[in-house]
Amino acid sequence: MIKVMIVDDEPKLREGLRSLIPWEKLGYTVVATAANGLQALEKYHTFYPELIVADIRMPGMDGLEMISELRKEGSESHVLILSGHADFEYAKRAIGYRIDGYLLKPVDEDEMIVCLEQLHETIEQEQRFSDWNEEEPARNRETLLRALMQPTLEEELEEENLSRHVDALGLDQGNYEVILIELRNTAGANDEDLRGIKTVMEQHFSNHPNASFFTLSQYLGILMKDPDQSASKREELYKGLSAVIEQKGCDFIAVTGGVVPRPEMAGESFNSARELLRRSFFFKKGIIISTDPSGFLMEMKEKTEEDQETESRLLLAVETGSLSAIRPIVQTICAELISAGSDELRMKETFVRLLSTVLARLEPTYPEIRIYAAEHSPPIGELYQSYYLTDLQDQAVSFLEEIAGQMTSGRGNEIKKITEIINRRYNENLKLETLSELFCYNSAYLGKMFKNTTGEYFNTYVDKVRIEKAKEFLTQGMKVYEVAEKVGYMNPDYFNAKFRKYVGISPTSYRKSI
Predict the structure, then answer these.
(1) Integer distance in angstroms from the first to the last C-alpha of the chain?
(2) DSSP code of 321?
(3) Among the listed residues 364, 373, 441, the one whose alpha carbon sits nearest the alpha carbon of residue 406
(4) CA angle centred on 103, ends 100 and 107, rounded to 5°
(5) What is the pLDDT of residues 264-278, one digit of tens each?
(6) Which of 93, 179, 377, 505 is most buried, judging by how many CB atoms fall within 10 Å of its CB?
C-alpha cells in the first residue's frame, strides 16, 4: 500500500478526505495527518509517506514552503496540491516544486479518484524500475554495462578500470553510441506489461551483433557499435521501439547521446543522452532525438517591436472569435519565448498566466464567458504535465478556442464588435490591420466599412474615445502625464496636441475650467 499524509489546517477537510476517498480500495493507506507544514515535516520523518496531499494556504508554514523544505532534503515524495485560490502565482510556484496534481477546493471526489489512480501507476512504475535494478546478479553483463555508463570517480581517473569493463563485456574497439529510452504515460500499463517491454527488448538486442541492452535508473538503454546514423535507419529503429512499447499501452521518448570513438567513452554518450532527455520538451515528437537542429520544434526568431504585442493580439483573436488565428499566435509566442532563452518551466508558467489572463480579461464583460468560466478553469495540470511543447500548444489552443467559441461574433456585426473593443481597450495599441486579419478582411475594405458605419476613420474614432476618457480622468483630478499614459499616449506632448485638436484647449486649461 502507498503511504499517504494529508496536510490541511481545516479539521473537517482533513477528516473528510480521510473518510470520503476509498484509499484502501485505490491502493493507498493514510498514515498521518497534519494541520500545517511544520507538523507535516515532523511526521514526514516518522512515516516517510510516498504521497502528500497538501493545502497551499496554512498558518505557520504553508504547503509550498513545506514542499520546498522537503525537496531541499532530497525527498522524492509525490505531492498533490489542494487550493481554494486558483491564481497564477500559486500555480507557478507549485510547478517549480515538481508536484503531481493541482486540484481546486471544494475537491471533486471523482476528479481526485482519477488523479490518485494515475499516481498509483506512476509510483508503482518507479518501484518496478528499482526492483529490476536490484534483481540482477552482481557483475553480470548488465551490471558491467551500467558501470561503463556511470563509472566511479576512481574509474574515470584510471582508464584501465574502464578498459577492464570493456574487455569483460567483449566490446571491440570502434565507434559507440548510447540511446536512452524513457517510458511515459504508463497509467494504462500493468506490471506484466512493463516487464514484457524489458523482456522483449532484452531478447531482441541479445541477437543483435552490434547492440547491448541495459537498464539504468528509470531508463532503458542501448549501447550500439558503429551505429548507422542515416535518417532511414533512425526511423526504422524508432518504429521498432514503438512496436514493442506502444502495444503495451505506454508512450516513450528516445534520444541519442551521439557517437564516441571508443567504448571506454560510452559514459560520455550516456551523459549527453540524459541531458538531452531533460530538454526533450522542445523537440519534435515521433523521432529519436539528437543534437541535430532539424529535430528542434521551431527556429529561433529575432525579436521585433511587433512581437511585444503578440499577447494582446491573442486576446483580440479570442475576443473576436477568430478561431483560425489562435494557433499561429500561440506558435509565435512559443518562438519568442525560445528566442528569449526560456526553459520548459518558464514556457509552462507563461501559458498558465496567459490562459488565466485571457479568461480574467473577458469574464467581467461577456455574460457568456462568465457562464463558461463558472464551469471551466484553465487546464493547469495538463499544461505542466505536458511532455512536449507541441502538447502544451495543443492544450492552450484547445482551451482558447473553446473560449473563442463562446463569443457571438460573426459576419454582419464586425463594426459593432470593433467599436466595443475600442471603448474597452482604448489604452492599448489597437491597429486596423490587426483587426482586419482577425476578421479576415482587407484592411482598406474594413476601413471603408468602419467609416461608412461610424462616420469616422478608425484612428480618429480611437482618438476621440481616448480624449473622452481623458476628460473623465482630468475631472477626477489626475495629473496630465498620468492621464496621457492611462488613455494610451506614452508621449505627454503628443497627448497635449491631440487634446487641443479635439477639445480646443490644453488638458491643463480644461482641468482648471471644471
Answers:
(1) 75
(2) T
(3) 373
(4) 135
(5) 999 999 999 999 998
(6) 179
